[in-house]
Design brief:
Elements (H helix, E strand, L loop, with lengths): L20 H20 L3 E2 L5 E3 H8 L4 H6 L2 E3 L5 E4 L4 H10 L9 E10 L11 E10 L4 H18 L4 E7 L6 H13 L7 H9 L10 H7 L11 H16 L4 E3 L11 E9 L11 E5 L3 H4 L7 E7 H10 L13 E5 L2 H17 L3 E3 L6 H11 L3 E5 L1 H6 L1 E6 L5 E5 L3 H13 L1
Parallel strand pairs: 1-5, 7-8, 12-13, 12-14
Antiparallel strand pairs: 2-4, 3-4, 5-6, 6-11, 7-9, 9-10, 10-11, 14-15, 15-16
Helix pairs in contact: 1-5, 5-9
Bound molecules: adenosine monophosphate (AMP).
Length: 434
């Protein structure tokens, strides 16, 4: 007996997925609202490559950040360059800012972006290896109003999309002047508690004690309650900056919550950090809709002049999941079909192909099912699509230059000359609008 040959099949790589047609409307909707609001608040679009030189991220984000340490897709090219798939957008934008000498442009330079990012994490709810973010960056402005405006613009994107039940967590993590002191205070507090920390936290204690606050283990969370809070240790400048942000947020009625444990994992942040959290999420910090902060040192770390900047990034996948869960209505992106072209026979099919093109130029929406030969089957499609009129071109009509115009609601039909078809539809459309 001949052995059955196993057929090789393929699947999307772990942690990635296809965006199938029924879901496209969410993507289009988010991109549209992001574009409209970003433009309103004065942000211009920027696109950067999806891979960069790997050290851009290791220097920019910090070697001990989780993203660089564990999640970056790094590869060597045939030419020996070490590249990384971008795990986030900010470092690339800072690189572009420097590369294109954008510091000579009027500041702040306000940019927005949208695209795929890559992190090697274990796939779970709302966590993918290829995921998508949109983000806002305001570079060259140290005033707290820039922080408030990034938060405000992002907040209104969510609102405009119809997403509800979230709040904004904010904290200040200080600057080069005050943070080291707080780091020492935090370390001396935790030193006596080391034995009670989990093994991850023991390592965090050594490498980056602020990450002690990220731990989800119950005993570590409990210990956190008695830990010192940075707000008490901010220098005057950071304190005032933070106070101003809160005043701006109050003024614009944004629902924020002070969160002294929010540090965000990246080295490049200073002063403000924020995240958008869902109210009913059991583990909101793990399923944030987005977040960001001030990164006053990043441009300098990457070789530029000290340049204050602030930004935030927001995840499409989580937003879409919430839009679905909250049954958010998406306006139809496909225009309603007005006319359906039905045909019988090769000559009629050819004419219909041409007629479709003529309709496209007029802006009237048409649909077809040229692969079907039965008129009955085509009328069924027309009905399903909600076409208001069907133009039927049979073998006889194709030869004698006529066409049948059928009104779907009444079933009434009339025969008109083919060259009058568009005009007849236009007339009926105009009559309906009256
Ligand atoms: P982050 O800067 O890491 O806080 O990311 C900002 C936002 O991007 C998060 O709040 C998520 O909405 C989204 N995000 C980050 N990582 C992932 C991931 N692996 N899968 C899906 N969304 C993500």
């Amino acid at each position: 007996m001949a052995s059955k040959k196993k057929i090789q099949t393929y699947q999307a790589p772990k942690g990635t997925y296809d965006i199938l047609p029924p879901d496209q409307k969410y993507w289009e909707r988010i991109n549209k609202i992001v574009r409209e609001l970003a433009v309103f608040y004065g942000f211009d679009r920027i696109d950067t490559p999806i891979f960069e030189e790997a050290p851009l991220f290791s220097r920019g984000l910090g070697l001990t950040s989780e993203v660089v340490e564990k999640q970056m897709y790094v590869f060597r090219t045939r030419g020996g360059d070490e590249l990384a798939l971008r795990p986030e957008g900010t470092a690339s934008i800072a690189r572009a800012y420097l590369e294109h000498g954008m510091s000579v442009l009027p500041q702040p330079l306000k940019l927005y972006y949208s695209g795929p990012m890559f992190r090697h994490e274990s796939p779970q709810k709302g966590r993918f290896r290829q995921f998508h973010q949109w983000g806002l960056e305001a570079i060259g402005e140290g005033d707290a109003v820039a922080d408030a405006q990034v938060i405000q613009a992002a907040f209104h994107v969510f609102k405009e999309l119809g997403i509800s039940g979230f709040n904004i967590q904010v904290n200040s993590i200080g600057c080069k002047k005050c943070r080291p002191h707080f780091r020492d205070v935090l370390k001396s507090h935790y030193r006596s508690l080391l034995k009670r920390l989990c093994s991850d936290c023991k390592r965090r204690f050594k490498e980056n004690p602020f990450r002690l606050f990220d731990c989800k283990n119950e005993p570590c969370v409990a210990l956190r309650q008695s830990a010192p809070q940075i707000i008490e240790y901010l220098c005057e400048e950071c304190h005032n900056h933070f106070k101003q942000i809160l005043e701006f947020l109050d003024e614009t009625n944004l629902p924020y919550i002070l969160n002294p444990y929010l540090f965000r994992g990246l080295d490049y942040y200073s002063q403000t950090v924020f995240e958008f959290w869902l109210e009913n999420e059991p583990n909101p910090g793990n399923f944030a809709l987005g977040g960001g902060g001030r990164y006053n040192y990043l441009i300098e770390i990457l070789g530029g002049k000290p340049t204050p900047a602030v930004g935030g990034a927001f995840g499409f996948e989580r937003m879409i999941e919430i839009m679905k869960a909250q049954k958010v209505k998406i306006p139809e992106v496909r225009p309603k079909i007005k006319v359906f072209l039905a045909q019988l026979g090769i000559l009629a099919k050819r004419r219909c192909l041409k007629l479709m093109e003529d309709f496209r130029r007029t802006g009237i929406t048409v649909a077809e099912s040229f692969g079907r030969d039965s008129i009955k089957a085509q009328l069924r499609v027309a009905d399903r699509l909600g076409a208001e009129w069907v133009l039927i071109l049979g073998q006889k009509e194709a030869l004698d230059g006529s066409i049948i115009l059928r009104e779907m609601s009444s079933g009434a039909q009339e025969i008109i000359p083919q060259e009058k078809a568009i005009e007849a539809i236009k007339k009926r459309l105009a009559a309906k609008q009256k």
